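Give me structure tokens for this 295-residue protein.
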Amino acid sequence: MVSYAKWDNFGDSSDDDDAAAAPAAARAPAAARGGAMPIPPVITMTSKDGYPHADAWRRLNGDACFVATYDDAAALAFVREHYPWIAGDYAGLGHGVERADLFRYLAVHRNAGTYADSDAAPLAPLEDWFARFGYSPHLAAQHVLVVGVEFPWACDGNELQLCQWAFAATTPQHPALYAAAAAAAANAKAIPFSKDNVTRRTGPVAFTKAVLGFLRELGRGDAVDALARDFAEPGGLYVALDEAECGVLVLPYRAFGYHPGPFHAKIAEERGARAPVAEPAGQRLVQHGFRGSWR
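Here you go.
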């Protein structure tokens, strides 16, 4: 079981003066923002190769949208300032992509808003993300993590696999992101580094295991079972976690995980054998470009 004790007070005393941090108005809960946008309009990105879709995120989300970009030095400075206890572990990770993995969990934990890979193109404004799957924007006034399915089948010991090239939180300090970051730091000590182990140490396998494990720890193993059994649920699955005063919204594969070309055909075939479902184009929220590689 992961201990979150170290994380309980992080973010409470952080200031809003970072050059790369989201404006305070963007980081406030939806209720405090007058319900203007369910997900705070701050987009966090890291890259060594530029940000080809940054302007698209701004155009879709209006003048309030803040795109926070970090290179390696800025990301390390962020971790040292806001999560100093983990800075040594962060700097010692075996590959740059592992640092990028851990950084994204920390950044959205602190600032809320959306993390997106630099090659992830937005297809819908943030204010529409809930409504396009039939959820009320009022849901976002709560403490909600929004994730999507990447692989709708068992993968690397998990019942399915969640995307971590795009995810969002409506408020800072979502405890499921505590779990993801703490697990990544622990995995880096427990699992030997190799390029084949990156996904298990800090990447999507580790992220999925942490989020699903978090649901189980709070007594929602039934929700994990439901996701594994009916991954094609048209509107995804909202999991309320009353004990932690938060929730996790798991959107279906088409929201973030759409793989173009032959791979999509493979997923469609797998799904067709188990649970056919229509795929409205309007419910695709992000298109990943698959430009990067850690191998």
